Amino acid sequence: MTYQNIRFDVQDGVARLTLSRPDKLNSFTGAMHTELRAALDTVQHNTAIRVLVITGAGRAFCAGQDLADPEMTVGHLQPDIGAVVEQHYRPLILALQNLRVPTVAAVNGVAAGAGCSLALACDLVIAAKSATFLQAFSKIGLIPDTGGTWFLPQRVGMARAMGLAMLADKLPAEKAEAWGLIWQAVDDAELTATVDKLAAQLAQMPTRALVATRLAMHAAPNHTLEQQLNMEAGFMRELGWRDDFKEGVAAFQQKRAPKFTGN
Ligand code: T3D
Predict the structure, then answer these.
(1) Whole-angstrom distance, CA of residue 108 vs CA of residue 75
(2) Cβ atoms within 10 A of the Cβ of 207, count?
(3) Looking at the structure, do residues 195 and 217 belong to the same domain, yes or no?
(4) What is the reported pLDDT for 99?
(5) Is the distance from the beta carbon of residue 107 to the nearest atom of ligand 1 less than 6 Å?
């Protein structure tokens, strides 16, 4: 597929997806969603890929839904926003949640609305210190979608999630780090190097274990302790048969660095 609204490249096991409508702060259009789906499908099926990095072109990460995109409305007089969410945003977040590789959001600038939710749907969020996180939804009479009502309270607790969602104040990256919304805020000039190093590290790690960690962590809030212990046992059983477990133990015993393959 030829991409017009994103850039997508793969190198050394790292897939980089750049939202690329910088003049509109990389806001989502129907065309961009189509391209995102294609890129995520490539990541899911190309076993050479071991990590996905998502970032934005220009000064923003993503300003959420393009509020001027006619393609995103279903029906002309009364747009069915629920249908837009079901057709575009729901599949996007489920694809990320079920992706077979770890994901990193490199938040280079403002992440607003569904753009903020997109970042929070990634396993690790690294932001430039000048970046901000904005639950823009209440300003236009909507609720945090694209998983926002799920990710926000899990990451920062109910009091902060409610404050962010209702008041729609911009949260600076350093405060987002202090609140546990994101993993790390770094100097703007350090963002690319920090993310490149992290991505290279993740690409050498036992991929299946990282993804099982994501799935188990996110399942926990809806499980009893016993259910969670059962889930952990199931993942441990599956991972214990894998090459990467054998390699990890062998490397430990032979006092050498492991060479994980993601299998
Ligand atoms: O179908 C559905 O609606 C369902 C899905 C909903 C999910 C959602 O994401 S709802 C939330 C949508 N997003 C927003 O409400 C955010 C709107 N944008 C802003 O609040 C601000 O732009 C920012 C806080 C993100 C950044 O502010 P600032 O001052 O740095 O930039 P700016 O001047 O406002 O924007 C620069 C340009 O980008 C400007 O275009 P222009 O005037 O230079 O031609 C602006 O219109 C454009 N832009 C920014 N955000 C959007 C956008 N254009 C379309 N849609 C946007 N979301």
Answers:
(1) 35
(2) 24
(3) no
(4) 98
(5) no
Claim to verify: residue 72 and residue 22 sit in the same structural domain: yes
Same domain? 39 vs 152: yes
| Mutation choice for ligand 1 from 24, 59, 73, 74, CB with most ligand atoms inside 8 A | 24
**pLDDT, averaged across the chain:** 96
State in Å: Cα 67 to ligand 1 middle.
Answer: 7
Q: If you measure from the C-alpha of residue 219 to the centroid of ligand 1, how many angstroms do you get, rounded to a whole number?
A: 33
Question: What is the CATH number for 177?
Answer: 3.90.226.10
CA of 10 relative to ligand 1 center, distance in Å = 29
Residues 248 and 166 in one domain: no
Quote the number of domains for the chain.
2
**Looking at ligand 1, which residue's alpha carbon is closest to its atom 25?**
63
Summarised one tens digit per residue, pLDDT across range 182-233 is 999 999 999 999 999 999 999 999 999 999 999 999 999 999 999 999 999 9
> Residues 157, 224: one domain?
no
Q: How buried is 88 (Cβ within 10 angstroms: 0-12 exposed, 13-18 middle, 19+ buried)?
A: buried
What is the per-residue pLDDT across 224-239, written as a single tens digit (0 to 9) for each?
999 999 999 999 999 9
Q: Do 12 and 73 sit in the same domain of this protein? A: yes
Nearest Cα residue to 221 out of 136, 138, 152: 152
Establish whether residue 202 lines the binding site of ligand 1, counting it when its CB lies within 6 angstroms of any ligand atom.
no
How much is the pLDDT for 73?
A: 65
Measured CA distances, 105 to 1, 51, 88, 112, 247 (Å): 23, 11, 19, 14, 29
Do both 163 and 236 map to the same domain? no
pTM over 0.85: yes
Examine the domain organization and report whether 81 and 14 are in the same domain. yes
**From the CB of 64, is ligand 1 less than 6 Å away?**
yes
> Which two tokens mark 49?
């890929």
| pLDDT above 70 for 74 | no
